[in-house]
Amino acid sequence: MMMQIFHKYKEMILYIFFGICTTAVNIVVYYISFYFLSLGTSISTILSWLLSVIFAYLTNKLWVFNNNATSKGSIIKEIVSFYGCRLATGALDLCFMVIFVDCLHFNNMLMKILSNVIVVILNYIFSKFYIFKK
Question: Where is the signal peptide (predicted)?
Answer without folding.
Answer: none
